[in-house]
Queue: 2 jobs
Job 1
Amino acid sequence: MEIFGANLKMNPVPKDNKNTSYQQLVNLVINGYLSTDHRGIAGTAEKRIIVFAPFTHLPQLRNWKSFLNNQKIELGSQDVSEQVSGAYTRQISPVWLKELGVSTVLIGHSEVRKEYEDILEEASPCGYYAEAIDRLFNRKIRNALAHGLEIVYCVGETEKEKQKDETKKVIKRQIIYGLNAFNKEELGKVIIAYEPRWAIGGGKPIPSDEEIRTAHNQIRENACEVGFNLEKLIIMYGGSMDESNAGRIMAIPGVNGGLIGSASLNSERFAGIVNYRR
Ligand code: PGA
C-alpha cells in the first residue's frame, strides 16, 4: 500500500509570499483534483490519496463527498484537540472531525511543533521542552484514536540537529514519547511520516537516498521498540517532494508514500507525484 497526502496549508511557498484565498483552496480540490482532466488523482486498492485540509475547508469539501468517493480521495485534518472533554475555546473535537467525514489526522507536523517550540523558548530560553511537546502529540494521538481516526505522525530533525549529527537521537525521542503506551491494534492505525524539517518548504534540497533510507530504517527500529507490527507499518517521506523527484524517492527501499505541501497546490503537479514513474 502506498499513501500520498496533500497538505494544503497557508502560504506554503515563502518566496511567493501571497496567501491562497479560501475559495482558491476549495477550487483547487473541486476543480483541480476532482475534475475529469485530473482523474489521475484517484485512490486505488494499492494507493490511497488523502487531502489534509484546514479546518475551515472541511465542511465545503465534505459537501463534495460523492465526488470524493468516486475518485476515492479521503479527507484529512491538520490537527485535533488533545482534550477529551470540557470547555476549550478554539479546540477542535475529534467527534466533529468524524462527523465531517475525516478519516485521518496529521499530528506533529513540524510547523505545528515549531509554534510550540517558539512559545516555550520565549518563556524559558534555556528550558528543555522537546519531550513535553512529544507528550502533547501523544495525547492528541490518543484522543483521535479513541474516536476511530487514523493518524499520520510526523517526525524529523531540524537543520541544526542534523549538523550536530542528532538525527537518530531526535527521531528516537519523537517516537518513544509520541507513540508511547499504545497497543498493537492502536499502532496499526498510525502511519509515520519522515519529514526532515530542513527540507520542508518546496524546492529545497532534499536528503540523499542514503539519508532517507537510513532514517526510514531507524524509524522502523524505533517503531518496533514501541510495539508496531512492522509488516503493516507505512512510512511516508515529506519535504520538497515534487513531480521531478517523486520517482527517485519512491524507489528508495522503505518509502511507502509522500506527504506533499507546496507541490500539492497545483493539481497537475500533484497528479505527477501520485502517478510517479521510476
Ligand atoms: P513541502 O511541505 O512539500 O512544501 O516541503 C511538506 C509538508 O508540509 O508536509
Job 2
Amino acid sequence: MSDCIFCKIAEGEIPSNKVYEDDEVVAFKDLHPQAPVHFLIIPKKHITSLDHAQPEDEPLLGKMLGLTRRLAREQGCENGFRVVINTGRDGGQEVPHLHIHVLGGPRPWKRNEF
Ligand code: AMP
Ligand code: ZN
C-alpha cells in the first residue's frame, strides 16, 4: 500500500513519535491528541480496517489489544484508559489502515469525539 500514510509511518518513511515497535506492530503518538495521553497502535501489515481483518489476523489483534495495557501504563495512564477502533466510513475512520486509539491521562479531557 504505497499511498498509505500509516504504512509509511510503519516503514519509517514518514516521521512519527514512536512509543513502541516490534516486528509486527508500531505505536506512536497521535498528531492531534484528544487527551493528555493519546497514541495509536497499528499493525505493520496493511489491514484497511477492523472490518477487513481476517481470521488469521486474530492473534495479531489480540497482541495489539494486550499492548494497550502495557503501553498505556508506560505512557502515564495510572487510572485507566479508553480504547477506540473507528471502523469504516460510518464508524468515523479517517485513515484507512487499522489502528487502535488509546486515550487517557488525568480528567477532565475532551470526550465529545470519543
Ligand atoms: P481515525 O479517525 O480513527 O481514522 O483516526 C486517525 C487518527 O490519526 C487521527 O486521530 C489523527 O490525528 C491521526 N493521524 C493522522 N495522521 C497522523 C500522523 N502522521 N501521525 C500521527 N497521527 C496521525
Ligand atoms: Zn497501510
